[in-house]
Design goal:
Helix 9 crosses helix 10. 44% of the residues lie in helices and 13% in strands. With 328 residues, it is an alpha/beta fold. It contains 15 helices and eleven strands. It is globular, with a radius of gyration of 20 Å. It folds into two domains: 245 residues, TIM Barrel; 72 residues. An eight-stranded parallel β-barrel has the order 3-4-6-7-8-9-10-11, surrounded by five helices.
Amino acid sequence: MVKIGDISLGNFPLLLAPMEDVSDPPFRYLCKIHGADLMYTEFISSEGLIRDAVKSRKKLDIFDYERPIGIQIFGGDEEAMSMATKIVDATQPDIVDINFGCPVKKVVCKGAGAAVLKDLPLMVRLTEAVVKSTNLPVTVKTRLGWDEKSKNIEEVAERMQDIGVKALSIHGRTRTQLYKGEADWTLIGRVKDNPRIQIPIFGNGDIDSPEKALEYKNRYGVDGIMIGRASIGYPWIFREIKHYLATGLHMAPPSFDERVEACLTHLQKSVEWKSPVQAINEMKRHYASYFKGIPNFKPYRTSLVASNDLSEIVDILQDLKENYLVEA
């Protein structure tokens, strides 16, 4: 049984990675109903929380059906991270997570995210500031290191555990790799094999099929897997991996109707949580993912992206269910 503090996650949990502009409550709802065991919010700026920035505060929204749920924060200043942690703590998530892995330039330039990998003493101080500011379990998401010459994840893991971190999620790339090339899980496996490491170690990077999930589980011995990009437009990946791990058999892929229903649910949940205008605009980047690989879909996608009218978009999606197979 894998546990983070007192939170039980089953024998081999599947985690939804925190993804900016993706893992908001509407998307998390779909991942939860399709088998995600632990989910994290989009990352939230510690400075933004302190300034009471609307966008940062909105990301604190969590719902009971999502539990266990972790709120992820990032920053490069100890006092700001401490204050932000107290704000997060008041919203009563199950976990506080620290982002030491984001490779995006606008985050790194502020000395946050993956930039902290260049300064291990600062990483320790920032983490201690968070741990001391909450009674909730604190977890960390990070990368192998800053670049090929500074893969320090083995030392990072020991230091994080020593100051009270309860679990570590490791993306198998350096910051300079961004999301290019293949994720290297070798060092993730070495962290897990370290006899000093007693906390759960979750592997992240390139898991896009049930076969790969089983292969990496067996090869690297991780306690669970965190899934990011492969879940975009395909929340069914969680249930498919679970089924394959349990039976060795593949589940049938989602039907076309299931794809349409998931897209509709995502849209409707977004409208409920955001303004309709914002929901409609943000959904435009998801349509291609939900219907990836579907032949002759381009005219529908063009119509969906072009429309700014909610009832019209719903009509297009309903029309897809009723007429697509006849036309395809």
